[in-house]
Specification:
Blueprint (H helix, E strand, L loop, with lengths): L1 H13 L7 E3 L5 H9 L5 E2 L2 H7 L10 H14 L4 E4 L8 H10 L4 E4 L12 H18 L4 E6 L9 H18 L3 E4 L5 H11 L4 E3 L7 H6 L4 E3 L3 H18 L6
Parallel strand pairs: 1-8, 2-3, 3-4, 4-5, 5-6, 7-8
Helix pairs in contact: 2-4, 5-6, 6-7, 7-8
InterPro entries: ICL/PEPM (IPR039556), Pyrv/PenolPyrv_kinase-like_dom (IPR015813), Pyrv_kinase-like_dom_sf (IPR040442)
Protein name: Carboxyvinyl-carboxyphosphonate phosphorylmutase
GO molecular function, one term: catalytic activity
Amino acid sequence: MSASLSAYADALRALHRPGDPLVLPNAWDAGSARAVADAGFPAVATSSGAVAESLGRTDGEHTPPDEMFAAVARIARAVTLPVTADLERGYGLKPDELVTRLLDAGAVGLNLEDSDPRTGQLVDVAEQADLLAGVRAAAEAAGVPVVLNARVDVFLHPDREPADRLAEAIRRAHRYLSAGADCSYPILLAEPSQLRGFVEAVAAPVNVLARAGTPTIAELATLGVARISYGSGLYAATRAHTARLLAAVAAGDPLT
């Protein structure tokens, strides 16, 4: 099992190419994961928010770990592609258990954010770096080169000037990469000149969240981005479309 997981992890890491980004329309269940695979995407990512809502929960670590990892396992079993899981800040699990449960679920990558889910505030950079280093050490002990995507939440907190937020995001990204992260994810950073500055300063794979107002995939590639995630966007669009269909059914109209 570890040999096949290692092959998936190597494949996932190789897909992080600055200027030729890995595009990840995030899945939330086995069916959506199969749809991603059938559309020709080379890997599947989960969205913690979408998974949580599909389970009748809310984002922010309100999903019990057993339920979250069971959902990740169903997704991994549904496809023959590398799977990377959005695990918020780890659900309070120790790094060894977090990595064990990730691998047992069949996933080979994970996102970890640097906000405290209880308060929504940024955690101390050294504390987050220790968590990431622990995950890297646990993955090495397991013999699987897990792909670790370190989310940087500075841009979720508009309490600083833009230049200060950029500088802090770069500082955190450097610390997280030094601790063993493979990719940095400055969520909500989308302004082209700031994004280019971040990519150039970090000099490692950078993940961008695609949403309204974000540059196009081609423009993000030109900026040197290596990974593009859609978060819970597809899930939200699917729910909105379902609501329209249900309204049509309630009105007695045929489905279209």
